[in-house]
Amino acid sequence: MPVLELREVTKAFPGVLANDRVSLVLEKGEIVALLGENGAGKSTVMNVVYGLLSPDGGEVLMDGRPARIKSPRQAIDLGIGMVHQHFMLVEPLTVTENIVLGREPGRFGAIDFATARRRVEELSLRYGLKVDPDARIIDLPVGMQQRVEILKALYQGARVLILDEPTAVLTPQEVRELFSVIRSLVDEGLSVVFITHKLEEVMAVADRIIVMRAGRVVGETSPEKTDDVGLARLMVGRDVVLRIEKTTKPTCGDTVLHVEDLRVRSDRGLEAVAGVTFSVCGGEIVAVAGVSGNGQTELVESIVGLRRPLAGTILLKGVDITRADARTSIEAGLSHIPEDRHRRGLILQFDLAENLVLGDHRVPPYAKGPLMRPGQVGAMAATRIADYDIRTPSAGVLAGNLSGGNQQKLVVAREIGRDPELLVAAQPTRGLDVGAIEFVHRQILAARESGKAVLLVSLELEEVLSLADRVLVMYEGRIVKELASGEADAETLGYYMTGGGGEKLSAQELQAPTHGGNA
Amino acid sequence: MNEKREQSVLVQRSWMVAAQKIGAPLISAALAVVVGSFIIWASGYDPRAAFIALWEGSFGSPKAIGDTLLKATPLILTGLAVAYGFRAGLFNIGAEGQLFLGGLAATWLGLSLAGLPWFLLIPLMLLASMLAGAAWAFVPAILKARIGAHEVITTMMFTYIGRYLVSYLVIGPLKAPGQIPQTAELPGAGQLSRIQALFSEATLASFEFLKLGRGHLGIVVAVIAAVLVWFVLKHTTLGYENRAVGFNPWASQTAGISVQSTTVKALCISGGLAGLAGSTEVMGVHHRLFDQFSSGFGFTGIAVALLAKNHPIGVIPAALLFGALAAGAGRMQFQADVPQKIVLIIQALVIFFVAAEEIVLWLIRRRQKEAVSHAG
Amino acid sequence: MLGDIITPDLFASALRMATPLALAAIGGTICERAGVVNIALEGIMLTGAFFGTAMVLLTGSPWLGVIAAVASGAGISAVHAFASINLRSNQVISGTAINLLALGLTGFLMELWYGHPGTTDPIKVLRPIFNFESPGGGAIAEAWRWFDSIVFSHTPIVYLTILIAIVAQVAIHRTKWGLRLRALGEHPRAVDTVGVSVYRGRWVAVLMSGALAGLAGANLTIEQVGSFTENMTNGRGFIALAANIFGRWTPVGSYLASLLFGFADALQIKLQILRGVVSIPPQLFLMLPYLLTVIVLAGVIGRAVAPAAVGEPYEKG
Question: For residue B323, which of B239, B231, B233, B222 has the smallest C-alpha distance?
Answer without folding.
Answer: B222
